[in-house]
Amino acid sequence: MLAKRYLMSPGPTPVPPEVLEAGGRQVIHHRGPDFRALMRRCLERLREVCRTEGDVLLFTASGTGAFESAIVNLLSPGERVLAVTAGAFGDRWIAMASAYGMDVQELRYEWGETPRAEDVGARLVETGARTAFVVHSETSTGVVCDLEAIARAAQEAGALLVVDAVSSLGAVPVETDAWGLDVVVSGSQKALMTPPGLSLATVSRAAWERSADAASPRYYFDWAKLRAALEKGSTPSTPAVSVVVQLDEALRLLLEEGLEHAFSRHAALGRACREGVKAMGLTLFSPDEDRSAIVTAVRVPEGVDARDVVLGLRDRFGITVAGGHGDLAARIFRIGHIGYYDVFDVTTTLAAVESLLVETGASIERGAAVSRAVEAYDDALGG
Amino acid sequence: MLAKRYLMSPGPTPVPPEVLEAGGRQVIHHRGPDFRALMRRCLERLREVCRTEGDVLLFTASGTGAFESAIVNLLSPGERVLAVTAGAFGDRWIAMASAYGMDVQELRYEWGETPRAEDVGARLVETGARTAFVVHSETSTGVVCDLEAIARAAQEAGALLVVDAVSSLGAVPVETDAWGLDVVVSGSQKALMTPPGLSLATVSRAAWERSADAASPRYYFDWAKLRAALEKGSTPSTPAVSVVVQLDEALRLLLEEGLEHAFSRHAALGRACREGVKAMGLTLFSPDEDRSAIVTAVRVPEGVDARDVVLGLRDRFGITVAGGHGDLAARIFRIGHIGYYDVFDVTTTLAAVESLLVETGASIERGAAVSRAVEAYDDALGG
Q1: Burial class (CB in 10 A: 0-12, 13-18, 19+), B311
Q2: Pairing with A1, which of A23, A117, A235, A327 sits 20 to 30 Å away (CA)?
Q3: A340 pLDDT tier (thresholds 50, 70, 90)
Q4: What's the whole-model pTM score?
Q5: How many CB pairs under 8 A join A and B?
C-alpha cells in the first residue's frame, strides 16, 4: 500500500520543495565567485534571522559542534562556568564543558521545569562565573524559557551568555542584539527548514574580546580563522556546499513569510496542538503557554507505554514523532511543529494519536481534537 | 548565451545525476529504522572502499574535522609526533597539531617532491615519535606518495601512521588493512562523488588502544562515543542526513563499477591529462608517473600568469580548475580528475586551455592535445 510519511519530530524537520530542489543541484566550487556571493547572501540572511548586526559564523557540523565552538573559543581549561539545565540538552553542554576541563557549576531544575532569571542571576553572583550557558528551547521537555529576562540577569552579573537556540531560532523571537545575547548557537535542521549538516554561532563584541584570551586549543572550530574566511565569502575548509545552497533558499522563504509572521504561526501551531491534545483528554507535559511553540510533550494515559505510541504512529501511520529522553521514555511522546508546518500537519498527527489510543482501550474523547485544533489555530492568528 | 559549467577542480567534484537526485529527497529522521539501515549499509560500503574489516567512523564535518579527530583521539598535549609535509595539506596538519600543543617534528620536502619511505623511517627512529602523519595525495602539488612503503617504514619504527587520503580514497589503491594503515582520513567530496559535508576516519586496533590513553580533550570528534552510536546505526548528534543518503548512493555506483576498475580509470585519466598537456608543449609540475591519478599540476609558459589561466577558463569557458597555493599561484594551475569523470572531461579542459593560451600568444602546439589524450586513455586501459 502507499506509504506516505510525516516527519513530526522536533528536528530534523520536513524541508520545503524549493529547498529539496536546491539540494539536487550540481555542486559548485567553494572558492569560486558564485559560491562567494551565495555565502555572503546566506550570512546576511542569517544576520537578519538572528536579529544581529554582529558576526554570524557558519560551521559544517551539527549544532553540537557549534556549541563546542563556544566552549573552546570563550573558555580556558579549568575556568568556572555556570550551566543551567532542565533537560537533555542542558545536560549535554555540562558533559561537553566537563570534557574540556571546565569547572562547571550547575543550576539544575527538574526536567520540565522552566529556568528562572532570578536563579541565574543569584547563581552567577554566588559562583563568580564569568560565562553562563542556557538552553532557550529545551527540546527534550518542550520548555521555552524567558530568554530576555535571563539575558538581563546575566548582564547585571557581568557574565557572558551562551544560548542554545538550536530548536528556537526562527520559530520564537531570539533578539540577539536587543537582548544582548553574546553567543547564539543554532542548527540548519529545525525551524530553518534545511537538512542537517550546518550550524551557526553569533558572536558579540564582548565574546570576541573574551575569545582573544581563551586558552583552550582549537582548530576546526576556531572562530577567528572562520571569521577571516567568511568575510571573503569563503571558509577555511570545504563547507557542505549543497546544504549552504539549501539554507540560503530556506532563509529566503522564511524572510519572505516574515519573521514576525513565522513567530505568530509557530505560537498558533503550539496552541493548536495543545488544545487538540487536551480536547481528547490527554495531559500536557510541556507548559501550556504561548512560548511553548516548538514541541508539545504529551503524557500518555495510565497503562499505556509512550514507546508503543511512538512505534505505533510510525508503523501504522508513517508518522515520526519523538519519544521521551531517559526516564521519560515510557511516559511522554513529543510532537514537533517547528519549520515547514501548518495546522493540518498538527491535525494529521492528532487524528492518528486519537485512533491509536482508542485501539489500546484508553479513555479518549473521540472526534474533538482535530476541530478544536483548527479552531485554536484560527483564534491564535486572530482569524 | 547558454552557460554550461564544468567542475574540474580536485574537490569538490561533480556529482552523478543519481546522487544529485538522492540529495533532493525529503529528509528522514536520524533515529528511525530507515536511517539506521541506511547508515549501516553506508558504513559497510565504506569499509569495502577502505579495504578494512575495522571501524570506519563518519563525521558531519569536512576532512579537516576528521583529521582533527585523529589528533585529539590519539595524542596527549605535548606529545611528540612526526609530520611529513611536501605541500599545503601537510602544512595544515602541522598547524593543527601545533594548535593542540603537540611537539611536532617535521620531515619537510620542497613542494612537488615525493616523500620517501626511508626518510620517514629514519626520522621516526631519530625523533622517537610514536605517531606519524602523512599525506597520501598532496592535492596542492599532484604528488601521490608510495603509501605502502611508508606504512612499512612506520611499522618497522613501531609508530602509528595517520594518513590523509582525502583526495586519494576511491581513486588510487588505499589498502587499509593489508598495508597496516592505522588511521585513514577522507572526505565525501572527492573521488567518493558526493557533495561535501561528511568525512571519515578508519581506526585500527592499535589506534583504538592508543586512543584509550590519549589525554587531549574532545567531545564532538570523540571516537569512542561515535563508534558506540554508529554500531547501532545512529550518531551522537544529528548527522547531515541528506549527504549520508547521497554518499550511500555514490558508494553503490563506485562499488558497481568496481574499485579495481575505478583505479584503472583514474590512472588512465591522469595519463590522458599528462599526455595531452605535454602534446601542446606545456611542462608538468606534478610527477609524470602512474600514481599521479588525482590532479595534474601544469606549469604555465614563460610570460603567462597562471591566475589569468584560471580566471580565463572560468569566465570564458565556464570551466573551474584550481590555482596554485601560495608561491605557486602565478606558476601553476591544477586540473582535477577524481570521481565522476571520463576522458572527455579531460579533453574539454585541454581544448579550452589550448584555445586560451593561443590567444595570449604563448607558443603552443595546436590540435595535438585532445587526440593525444584520447589515445593515451585508450592505451592505458589496454583498449
Answers
A1: middle
A2: A23
A3: very high
A4: 0.97
A5: 186
